[in-house]
Structure formats: C-alpha cells, structure tokens
Amino acid sequence: MQDGVRFALTEEDNRASFKLRYQIYVKSMGRLKDKGDHENEELRDEYDDFARAVIAIQNGEPIGTLRLFWGGDVPFPDSLIEAYSINPFLGVLRQDQICIVERLMVTENHRGSNVTLRMYREVMNFVLQHRAEIVLLDCEPHHLNSYLKLGFRPFTTPYTYPGIGLVIPMALIVGDFEHLKQIGSPFAMLTKPEDLAYCTATEALTRIIDDKANVHSLTVSNTGQFLAEIKSLSPEKQFAFNTTPTLFDFLEEEEIERLIQKSHIIACKKGNHIIEKDNSAKTMFILLSGHVAVEKNGQMIAMVSPGEVIGEIAFFLGVPRTASIIAATEDVKVLSLDEKGLSRLLKHEGQLANKVLMNLCRGLCSRILAGSESSDFRAN
Predict the structure, then answer these.
(1) What is the CATH number of the domain that holds 337?
(2) Which of 17, 26, 292, 360 has the fewest CB atoms in 10 Å of its CB?
(3) Containing structural domain, residue 108
(4) What is the reported pTM?
C-alpha cells in the first residue's frame, strides 16, 4: 500500500481501515466484540456503507484511521442524530454543513506522534472544501485535554456509549477563528480568517453550546473558581483528616492545584456508566457528589460515597476495568484525573507523590475494613 495519510478511495484502503479497527478495538482493547467479523478480523458495520474513512499508512502498513460522516453524502440517520446531539444545530444549519468524526485510533507505537494531527488535517481540508460549519464527536474522559487543545468544546450531557462507557459530546465551531487562535489550536495554523468567510452561523452556534456543557475543565477555567467548585460539591470533605479518607487529605492548596492540573469535573445522569467493565482506559476519578454503584455481572457489590477514588486498580495494575461503575443518583459529579499528568507527578514529584499514595492506601484500607465489617454483619 502507498504510504501517506488520505481518505480511503479503494477497497484495499477501506479493508485496511476495518482490519486496523479490529486489531485495536477488538483484539487489543476488548471492545465491540459483538460487532467484529472474527473470521476476516475486520470491524465494520452498517454505517460504513455511507461513511468515509481516513487511513494513515507507513511502510505499507496501516498505523491510524478514523471515520467521518458528512450530512451531504446521505441524511444522518436518527441513531446518529441522537448519539451526537445534532438536533439543536439543525435549527441553524443544513445537514451538509455538519460533519461527525469517530473511531479514531492509532497503533500503540505511534501514539504521541503527529499521526493523529495529520489525519485531522485531512478532516479539516474536507470541512473547508465542503463548507461545513461544525464538527461533532464523542470523547472519552482521558482524551478531553487533547480535544480541548484542538478547539473542540463540550456542549451537552455526557452519556454511556455501549461497550465503552462515559463519553462527552464535543463540538468544533469551524468559523470561530478567534477561539482557535486563542487556545493555540493547530487548526488556526491550517486556516486563515478569509478561508472561513463562508461561515455565517458562528455566533448562533456559539450561543447553542455556551453554558450548556456538563463538563468543567481546569484547562480553560480560573483555578480559584475550579477549586471552589470542588470544595462546594463536597462540603463535608474539607481536605483534612476524615473517617473516610480522600485523595486530598493533608495536601496544601498549591499541592492540590498540581495534582488536579488538566482535570475535569463531569456531571453524570443517573444510570450513566462512568466506567465500563473490561474497558482498557485507565483514568482515575474522585467522586465529588452523589453516589455510584460498583457492579459485576449485573450485581451490585458496593456503593461508593463522595470523596472516594474509583478506577485506581486499572491505573496501577495496567489491567482492564475489573467492574462497572454506574451513577446511582441524579447528582453525581466526578473529577477525572489526567492519566499522563498523574503518571508524571508520581514519577517526578516524590514528596507530593508520597502524600497521594499514602491517601490512596488509607482509602483502600478503609474500603477493605468496610467490606470486612459488612461481611461480619451478614454472617451474624
């Protein structure tokens, strides 16, 4: 196959995309096994009949791919309109002014390279050529910072994507050049204001997404306000010694700021799967408000209260998620801790890392004791 990054135009290109999806999603991550063609080792579905694929080839082998839907090819089916919360935008845009990106994946040894950006450059060229005004996607919590840097913004309630877990709908308003320039998005370097003169709905689209997100990001927020929101969400946890330990116990405010750099507060609906069993993602969360249930094989095995950490087993052991974590009440908010940032902190900031690890150990011990006491109670 010819090296380069391009939209798939041949059957060979498309099959390379399907096979790479299978290798990464099904074989490596254990996702979407029910949708995989295990005989041919391909992951494709009915949406591929009208979707476009971008493929990255190096040394004759696929190393990255993504899928793009454009409303100018065929009208979006109701399933995509619901999944990507398109309805609010249809009041100001035609479907041929909307693109959706999904199924982005890169082989492990090329993650962190420029492969993803090169594929998105192809997407942006397509967007400009076809005069689209908005690009939509669903983002997992551990990818939030990457998409914020590109210029995407959360705009509605997170939801559970079957087989994956919690995802956050995000939108890139193509004509908002000032926002792209302000955050240093690579897309601002790929375009000029005159390239976006066709965009007439920018203000209307901005009004639609403003103040409607259920995600609050430290990356784009005032630090003081962010810290105040964390404390106000869980007033009984004042980051001091508690009978139920928290990750913030005995930390100075400046240390908390370093710990939660690039973090996000995510509001969830009752029933949202914050963590999906067997998922390979390793994000840790701190429950700030509400209660979440820990489930295995459809059975609740524990209830988590505000202040507790969830997802630490997959983070530290490097294993798939051992249980599903589901929002049990309507007022659930979690703080997602950036996986890469936390790894850097544990590696390079010994004193703070020791405090964090001690708090994690205290939390785990408290959880073990609570489980032991519950077992004794049931036995008696």
Answers:
(1) 2.60.120.10
(2) 360
(3) 4-213
(4) 0.83
Q: Report how far residue 352's alpha carbon sits from residue 345's, in angstroms, rounded to the nearest whole number.
A: 8
User: Of 196, 213, 230, which one is at a domain's C-terminal end?
Assistant: 213
CB proximity list for 174: less than 8 A, separation 6 or greater: 127, 128, 132, 133, 134, 135, 196, 199, 202
Same domain, 231 and 357: yes
The DSSP annotation for 268-281 comes to --TT-EEE-TT---
273 vs 268: CA distance, rounded Å:
9
Of residues 24, 1, 18, 13, the one with CA closest to residue 108: 24
Q: What is the pLDDT of residues 331-351, one digit of tens each?
A: 899 999 877 878 888 888 989
Model pLDDT for residues 210-265, shown as the tens digit of each residue: 856 678 776 666 667 677 767 654 444 444 444 577 888 888 888 888 888 888 88
